[in-house]
Structure prediction request, 817 residues.
Amino acid sequence: MAQITVNFTFHSGVKRHLFRNVRLSGSWDATGQFSNQWTEEPMEASPDETGCDAFSASVSFDSVQTGTIFQWGVVADIVGAQNTWVVATEVPDENSNLRYRSFALTARQTQQDYWFATGRRFGAQKFSPPGSATPGIRFALWAPHAQSAEVVFAPFSLANGTPTGYISDDGTGVDFAAAVVPLLSKGSGIWESDMATTPALANFDDYINRLYMYRITNEQGAITYKVDIFSRNQVGRGGSNPGGAHYAGSYRDLDGIVSCSVVSDPDQVAQNFNDTGIDKQTLIPEEEFWASEYTAGRLPPQNLADLIIYELHVGSLGFPSTSAGTFADAMDFVDKLANLGVNAVELLPVLEFDSDLQWGYGTSLFCCLQTSAGGGNQLKHFVRACHQRGIAVILDVVYNHFATADNERSEWGYDSDPNVAPQNNLWYWYEGQPANYPGNINGGYLNNGSSGYTPRFREENVRQMFTSSAAALLDDFHIDGLRVDLTDAIHHNNTLNANGWSIASANNYGIKFLRELARTVKMVNPSAFLIAEDHSGWPAMTQSLSQGGVGFDAVWYSDFYHHLIGDGNYGDNYAKLLKNAGYGTTAPLNLDYFTGALLATQYNKIAYHENHDEAGNAGNTERTIVTAVNYAPLIDATRKYAEGRSRCVFGLSALSAGTPMFLMGEEIGAAKYFRYNDFFANKEDLIGQRSSVGQFLFRFYQDLIGLVTAKPAARSTAIDVIYRHNDNRVIAFTRSATGQQLLILASLNDAPFDHGYILSTDSWRLPSGGWQEIFNSDAAIYGGDNVGNSGATLPVNNGQINAVIPAHGFVVFQKVS
Prediction:
């Protein structure tokens, strides 16, 4: 019988060696005929043309099966799990979470490929075809509506003065001395360069540091200039957008999103941190750079429960400058983080975004680090410096929308005019056809509660661009985890721009994307932290993938914040403990409301008393120390009250059963608004105030962080609220781990219980024996009145203890007998 050979290749697309014992599995039998009993055979390992691990196998099919639809996938052993199905991408059915690839058998030999990550598949990448001694370069992009595509270059020579790094809409700025690279259609909307037609591509080094753009003839026949969506480096370092007009200024003034892309080698790192020019002089292999990444006995934590997270905005560093802070400022701050004692830092977005003078939540280029901040090399130095000090690095990433400004050269209208055919606006979800929305051509886009239209998650290439970006952050930059911005916008909030109707299919494809993201992240690094900013209360977010969930490790717990702090425009169904205590009255506090939130922290929660959104950005919100006294001037006795209450709420957060997080500046009592559009004018001296006005708070933060990191009970998920009294403003709870028990007594009353407070509960909830005071938030070294139990060991009998509790403070006891 006649046979038809099909070749299968599984491309890892990452430099890490993730997969072992790789096997092809498919819906055929040993004779090459369709079968519901899938067969399995080994795949041969060999680096592919990108230099990453790839695995191949060939199967002979019976020719009588021509036209039959077959399915296939790949099984491998990965760290911590044997026989894992390693196809992360789900089938294009919004109601299915199955993961396999399909093809129809044809009469000729064919090649079937699957890319686990596409960050080295698309863009300007090293390319080593079989038999090549040195790598060449391949340019590749996805533009299914384009009539043609090619690569053009801009001149860059420091010897000729300051280069512009910009190509205008009429082509001014193109280097006509540089040969244009034609891209050939490869099917499925993919365009690639070809060494056979462009032999000059055979040497990658000839193109390193070259400035380029894609010249795309779009669906309507118009010539447009677009950046590389998979760019790893942009030439722009400023905030200027010429809007397509002629530009004769410096590349240093350009916004990176609209400037030229730069050919870069992701496998090389600048040894000198300050070597930030386009033509870097101190490049070394990444293996050499990362060789000194860790310090023996001081490794970053790998368990979510062990983290104490410091939320850091790089742009807000660099006091007293009113320019946006850079990675250089962040490098200067690493030792300050270590001195504070935190073991994880969460960076607000640093992928290429639309303005230095915003927080970074308008991302467009998801493989490129913000050039004006110092770019990818400097981030790698920052990560290595953190790891050397035992600090994990988590990045905020934004997958719910693209940049809403300066986006005309990236995702917006990439290969078709959105004013003519918005349904073909490649990267954006458009529901139906323009004719469905007479008089409102934008009616088919989707809103999702974020600041831009919904991405086209039904397209596999869109979903895989995001997941591949995540893989690159873990693989190339050694990032320890991701905090994904506003995930409810992805899985829950999609509505039609025309009329606000909910679009279920967009929500379903959003869920599909989040599952694919979780699978990808955990296969690249099983220990990576995956955290969602999710306000939907949907329990599936932190349920495992094997149980039908989305597979995230934790969610931000905003209700905890609303109950504990309570500024902002929120209803009376929240306790608002600090806000109400800040009035200085003796009215009861709704500690019964707060109790439920405190208990809920044991369920995969990030517990915080302050974050970037709630420190002056959201309506009626303030920094903690300001809310603590309701705007009263922070001088003399007022500041003392403010600091005492601030210490108390951080203690309730840090000693909860969640993973504690706090915003930069809380440790010194930062008081200025923290807003997305004027942070540069509100920077605070985070270093200098540690030894001046913020010295007491800083010492308190140091010591409490030290306590939490040293006590397993404080890092466990075991919590029991054993007592609360609304009128007295007192709450008590225990934390437990094997062989260790802690008792926390806290009060937001403005008078101390200095003669003792008798607390009674069930004897099984507070075991009898001796309990020693090990921490007092009112200690004199923290600026308090030293009202407490002087480190004494107090007896507990039949669930009762009599302990001194300071005003707006807390004490911690440990069972010692």
In short: The chain is about 15% helix and 25% strand. The CA atoms of residues 23 and 42 lie 4 Å apart. The chain has a mean pLDDT of 96. The radius of gyration is 29 Å.
